[in-house]
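Weekly modeling sync, notes
Attendees: S.R. (lead), two postdocs, one rotation student

Agenda item 3: backlog of single-chain predictions. S.R. asked that every request posted to the team notebook include the full sequence so nobody has to chase files. The rotation student volunteered to paste the first one in as an example of the format we agreed on. Action items at the bottom.

Example entry:
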Amino acid sequence: MTQGGGRPDSRVRRLLRHGFSDPASADRLLDSEALAPLRDDTLFLDALGATADPDLALVGLLRLVEALGGDTQRLLDALRASKPLRDRLLGVLGASAALGDHLATHPGDWQALVTYEAADLHPGVADFEQALQDVDSPDALRVAYRGALLSIAARDVCGTSDVAETAAELADLATATLRSALALAEADAPEDAARCRLAVIAMGKCGGHELNYVSDVDVIFVGEAAAGTDEDEAVRAATRLAAHMMRICSDTTAEGTIWPVDANLRPEGRNGPLVRTLSSHLAYYQRWAKTWEFQALLKARAVAGDPALGEEYVAAVAPMVWQAAERENFVTDVQQMRRRVIASIPAAQVERELKLGPGGLRDVEFAVQLLQLVHGRSDASLRSPTTLEALDALAVGGYVGRQDAAALDAAYRFLRTMEHRIQLFRMRRTHLMPEAEEDQRRLGRSLGYRSEPIAELHKAWRRHAAAVRRLHEKLFYRPLLDAVAQLDVGEVRLSPKAAGQRLEALGYADPAAALRHLEALASGVSRKAAIQRTLLPVLLGWFADSADPDAGLLAFRKVSDALGKTPWYLRLLRDEGAAAENLARVLSGGRLAPDLLLRAPEAVALLGDEGGLRPRDPAALVQETLAAVGRAADAEQAVAAARGVRRRELFRTAAGDLIGAYGTDGAEPQDPAVAIDRVGDALTDLNAATLAGALRAAVRDQWGDELPTRFAVIGMGRFGGHEMGYGSDADVLFVHEPREGVSEHEAGKAAFAVATEMRRLLQLPTADPPLVMDADLRPEGKSGTLARSLASYEAYYRRWSVVWESQALLRAEPVAGDADLGARFMELVDPLRYPEGGLDEDAVREIRRLKARMESERLPRGADRTTHAKLGRGGLTDVEWTVQLFQMRHGHELPELRTPRTRVALAAALGAGLVGEEDAHTLDEAWILASRVRNAAMLVRGRPGDTFPSEPRELAAVGRYLGYEPGHVGEMVDDYRRVTRQARAVVDRLFYDAE
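Predicted structure, as returned to the notebook:
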């Protein structure tokens, strides 16, 4: 479309940017006389663009304006002046064609959206009863119901109410509607109303206060005779009233329908009488009711009719609900019921089912209800009829792991929101993902996905459904439930044959050995064995989810042997939802973490503490280490204590890393970039604290409280850069400065003695992993003095320093000792690291020559250049030398480049325009991946490695750590080669200046 002179219509382009699918048609609608006052209103167009379907919203608004006829000015003025009204009205019109139809038929109802007061935000039953109070006919009720629904939908689509609040409001509106419908039925038959007392009991989602927009409202009717009336006649009268009330709600007329009222949950279902007396209900439940009927009664709530009778019914059936778990075959009945539901879904619809399919809403609801019925007998806090409230109570009570509950809560909220928005569009009862692309686009936009609404919608749906499937299978089928329901722990003991078969099915390489471990853990009649029998069926599944189930089970046996008599150990695994799974992940994720744990098994307590796997504050680590050193009798005992703290912190870091990399049933795997930075910081901090302890021990043992010379340890390489891996040495420089009155010779002798003693103490053979201090980056390397004075460093760097030493100093950072001396050392080396004017061409050539020599000489013989994480193509040194060249060239004039951290410096180079965004991303991705491969090798094998392991199980374990599912190790190596090949191409251009 063009304007005068052929200029392209900018409004069409703007409409396209606002999310219109048909901007040309929208432009024509905006040019209509009815919408002329809003045509160029930017706020109006922005509000349209914020809706789920801007095209639908615009058409709906035009229909509303046309339906108002000459009475449009107030609406148009309100749309311009009131943002709440604008957002509400357009939000509803963009999400619901059905409510758009309602407004076109009843245009005056738009005014229900004008009110925007605190009391209007979350109305209850009384508010909805007031909205329906003038109803005098079934059609009037239908119109008033849609009007009230309009305000609920507006709060929903605008985000004023979350999905739980929306469902509660819909249930409250249903309660008010049932009361109004019953009042209409009673007004039509006053004689029947006088003969009986009738109570309406809400069941299902209405009873649970979590109703959908369009859903059957499940009810049960209870009737009693009024004074002086025969019981049979009263029941017949109550039945007529109940049937009339159902028709009022369910019938379809020119004003549409409300929703079907379903009474099939009553005793004997559709074959039983519609209304029973309370005594008849109780007699049936006591003698004939099936398990599913007690499960359904969990949500019973009196909502309409005679309130006293309704509450009497609920109070009478409640004890039966909470005794249901004691019935024979209770858990089996519920599980089989769930399987039958899945089997009844048409094959063509399984993948589109939000409610009944695997990973759907019913999975969450069934699992929660089953846990409620099993544990609610003795814990009244679990008896809420609302799914999310019950789930929260289960988590609070320790019956569900907190992470599991959070994941189920998030998934349930997401799936219910999808269901709501699908139903809202046409006001039709459905639980299926729509097939049409435009419907999926509208749905995605309604959930906040704007850039790629369909793709993002499906990705989120798959993620949440997968989480529900995992959690449901663990919670719903867990043999523990049988044990609790029957109060007979022996029911879950695995027989040797069953255990062997299950072990084989789970992929254990040596089922016979695994079975011996199980027999050792679970045999006998002790309390310890009984708890193990409830834990093992779940743990076996978690071990099987790893690359080496056998190692996980063996390590679990060793930890249990060490801690089995400790009262808190098994209690922690049984009662803390996350602890058992975390332990399983750690024990089956490789050798390093289990080895650390087995040296001090009490560290397993960290796995049950919500914050136990977060790295400690550096200052607190130093304080604890120095306190431990202070309590020791001599230097060797002091450093042994410091190394013990380090071992525990290494375990904390490795365990958190493994659990974060694998993800758990309650959390997605962590962002690799965040994880690698956190590990690097944690390892650097714990090693710095250990050095501080070793320094204090070495000084105290020979000199008391004060060394004759000030002394500082400077971290270098990955240590200084906060980029240490599990297998990294601590690269350091030692610097000192004689105290007043102390000769240079005496100070140097003391500094050398301290540095030598620190290195010795930290490498003493003990059960704790050694910390190797490497001082080879000092002036003159291995031939130079181990510890130099600050003045000696200044003299050397002024006269003899070469370019590689300046480059190495880029990652220098004080890590222990005298802070002031460390700071002055940094001031000394800054001009070397960041030379004024940058590097000259000779220096650049020298750096490139050194790098090329390293590539040809330092790669181990036989190593694959394409997979060596440190020295290989596109590996760590490629990325780091490229970034360091930027720092030395431009660090003097760009302070943001002055950092020892590779990724921070790369981001600064990107911000300064020294590297393009795509190149920076490529280098960053390769550095993160190579760092993670090195860490994975150490975690899995228990010894350092710079490439992928060759042993299949170890390679598979590295793959799991890196996020690859079983059977995809070839894809993992291919991805590594692709990423690093791309990085090397960037290095060739930016570092070697190749075309």
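Discussion: group reviewed the output briefly. The radius of gyration is 36 Å.
Action items: rotation student to repeat for the remaining queue; S.R. to check formatting next week.
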